[in-house]
DNA sequence: TCAAAATGTCACCTAACTGTCACGCTACAA
DNA sequence: TTGTAGCGTGACAGTTAGGTGACATTTTGA
């Protein structure tokens, strides 16, 4: 599944330019020019990254940023602030508020792409192009291959997607609903308990007797994949 | 422990300026003007972040960056590239090589500080506002993990919420009713004394024999978590 | 086409968690 | 010192959430 980016920008032309560039890079793009709506869109379906203009309607960008950071569900989404205000004070304020990067207009679209990519590389390790490997577990998204300690493992399609979903989001507790949304798709009406069953199948597939189970059950919350 | 930063910069004056600023912000700073030496220093003791000048002796900055990214041990250390070269191509190349941020000279030291902070916030949650830690007690809301003195602790769901509630409000006496409202929800009709029981369970979970109990009972008022 | 693999549910089971209580101790005030 | 309200503690029964094996159905691939 492609990484998704939400563009929050009320300058129509710029918004389209960004969306076009991002799409060309293979991102799923959604956009809005309205701060209030942006918050709703994020809550409805959290993107992997957000490009956020400082000067937008309804709610100023920095306030959107603050709101997003306050809510634990959205607190870790990378945010690039975008602005015409080049003043040092503003940049520092933006960064202190929780933005991960701060780009001033005019900017180079290609540089912005590179910055987005750098951010995603950090928050979603798979996007760096490298294989995902944590400890002795390796997952190659391209060839659909999984290994543990060099030994090839056999995973079904769903187990593979599930494992990738976890490896792209290590050290985070993921609720069953999040897992369903991410692995099965937003519009699936599948029982939450089905996740349990697939977790069991995944565990069975990747754990040899005596090896540590990398998937941790977090009671009343979901599952998490532990790294290191 | 303070976060540590390695400054790789061969302009002596700039290097000192950065070191001074970083120290003032509470970082442990080491520095060198030599790329080869930088690699050795990182391998000897990995810093939490690196400020890396593009134009340094022996090995160009971008090559240092590449080397660091190649080694699993050092691949995830945040790197800020620092350079006089303002060309878009260079910036993009730097970012694609694995740098997390790219700042061109002349730059504002305060902004650079803010960018470093933003990076650390992401890579070492314990430094940013995300993670709660007091003394030897760490609580990571994202991964639902609690540690004391590095050792992982097991807490039940309610104990976890209770501890987080306390850590979010350190040094304050909290009444049983406040705790019920905050941890159980406003509309719970639970006996106030139940709080006592969960406090006991929490204490049992986080205190090893011989360790100081961070939870203080305030007679006739409630409980407080002491940060010393 | 047909067997093997994969998938989504379900019922059952167990371990973990929860809220309450009774009892005893402790700190504080008179 | 003593009485008492407040708190700690161990026990316990009720509840809940997750693990598990089984199974019918669908999908896949030879």
Can you give a write-up of this model?
- Two copies of one chain form a homodimer.
- Chain A has 228 residues and is an alpha/beta fold.
- Chain A has eight helices and twelve strands.
- Chain A has helices at residues 12-24, 35-44, 61-70, 88-97, 109-123, 157-167, 176-184, 193-206; strands at 4-8, 28-32, 49-53, 79-83, 101-104, 132-134, 137-140, 145-148, 151-153, 173-174, 215-218, 222-225.
- In chain A, the strands form three sheets. In chain A, strands 2-1-3-4-5 form a five-stranded parallel beta sheet, sandwiched between helices. In chain A, strands 6-7-8-9 form a four-stranded antiparallel beta sheet, with helices on one face.
- In chain A, helix 4 (88-97) links the parallel strand 4 (79-83) and strand 5.
- The first copy, chain A, is elongated, with a radius of gyration of 19 Å.
- Chain A starts with a strand and ends with a strand.
- The A-B interface holds A 72, 75-76, 78, 88, 91-92, 95-96, 98-101, 108, 110-111, 114-115, 117-119, 121-123, 128, 171-173, 218-221, 224, 226 and B 78, 88, 91-92, 95-96, 98-101, 108, 110-111, 114-115, 117-119, 121-123, 130, 140-144, 156-157.
- The first copy, chain A, binds a DNA duplex (30 and 30 nucleotides) through residues 156-159, 190-191, 193-194, 196-201, 217, 219-220.
